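RHOMBOID-like protein 12, mitochondrial, pasting as requested.
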Amino acid sequence: MTSLFHRAFGRAISNTLRSRPLTCTRLSHSLITHREPASPIVQLVKDRSRMQLRFFSSKPRPQNLKPPSRPYPHRQVPNRPPRRPFLGFLDRISENALFWGIITINGVVFVMWTMSTQRLKIDKNPYSYQWMINNFSSSWRNFSSGRIWTMITSCFSHENIPHILFNGFTFFFMAKPVMSILGSRNFLFLYLGSGIIANVASMSWTNLMRGRDNGSYGASAAIYGVISFLACVAPKMTFQLYGLIPIPAWLAVSGIFAYDTYSALNDSRKGIDTIGHVAGLMGGVVYFLARRFRIL
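Structure tokens follow.
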């Protein structure tokens, strides 16, 4: 009896102390949000007896990986036409026409000198000879009188036959390689620029250092500028000294420079503008450096 009583009493107490079960409510599917799988998605594809991994993106891959450029109106450069080179029309002259044109001008001026000299000797008329001196020789008197064109015309002026033959022979063999390198316009800049530099140096030297105003003319300084430029471009090129002796270009130009510099300092070669020769050689070197470092 006692055991039955204890069992009944224990069940009654346990029923009173037992808590009621919690009620669970299901969430509706409308409250659940599904996150899209991140790309790239790995998809397993069974290919016969092996598994392959195929990677693909949900968005097409851009072809250009660079970010789009932002517009900067204040940095936009207007489309400008290319700059025209200074005296660019000279490039229209063919190299062959320029070559023979320079030789022809030298020949015409030589004929003018010959005719004026003969008129002075035969007719005793100095007018034409003086006109040639005033317009085809460079001197401080001509320059200060306003005849500035003599800085250029003197580069085509020869009075005697040995002078024009020697310069013409040198120009004939040295000018064409330089023309093929520079073109017509730049060759004229080199030729005339070397001649002008030589005339300025000659006038300054004779007036300041020697105290006299000697006129000078000839294409020697301009041709020396062409030779020194060619020697700078191809220093190991072989020159034929007087058409007979082979000599490297750098040695030939160095020898001419040293010889004319010595003659100019000692004034040992009367009647020859040695300082003009030195200045012409330096003009060719300066022009080469200007082209080398893209100054011109």
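Note for the archive: Residues 88-292 form a domain with the Rhomboid-like fold fold (CATH 1.20.1540.10).
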